[in-house]
Specification:
With 146 residues, the protein is mainly α. Helices cover 58% and strands 3% of the residues. It has one domain. Bound molecules: zinc ion (ZN). The site of zinc ion has 8 residues, from loops.
């Protein structure tokens, strides 16, 4: 069987999809299909296709979901850390450098994990855009008549 057919079979086999825990794939930043190959090209760019199993990752769109979680969670942690460090009596420059370094490293680290988790959850739950069927249109028209 040629590689293209194997990849097609892997992508369309419902037993294969979902065999990897989306949380494990997210924590390890790996492919949501095979759970082994890395998900990213570089720091935060999702690959178009998995290099291990050939799974098509081009349709991935995690949107701004991961960024919102990072802003909320890391903002809270940074504020608490800032208050703690300020109460230790550190100079303002040391405090500023420590918090900026913490935010830069922490946000990239958290973005990688949360974005990979959201991508894996999309594939695990087969999420996609909504569709309009004839039944829904007919039901909406009947509701508007009442
Ligand atoms: Zn893979």
């Amino acid at each position: 069987m040629p590689n293209a057919e194997i990849n097609k079979t892997l992508e369309t086999d419902p037993g294969q999809l979902g065999s990897v825990s989306p949380y494990k794939a997210g924590l390890t930043c790996s492919c949501p299909n095979c759970g082994k190959s890395p998900l990213y090209n570089g720091l935060l760019e999702v690959k178009d296709r998995c290099t291990g199993c050939g799974f098509d990752l081009a349709a991935v769109d995690a949107g701004d979901g991961a960024q919102i979680f990072v802003i909320m969670i890391l903002g809270t942690i940074t504020t608490l850390l800032g208050v703690f460090l300020y109460n230790l009596g550190l100079s303002k420059w040391v405090l500023l450098l420590a918090l900026i370094s913490f935010v830069i490293v922490g946000s990239v680290w958290m973005l990688r994990i949360l974005k990979a988790t959201l991508v894996a959850l999309q594939f695990y739950h087969d999420a996609g855009l909504g569709t309009v069927s004839e039944d829904n249109v007919e039901a909406a028209n009947n509701d508007s008549d009442v």
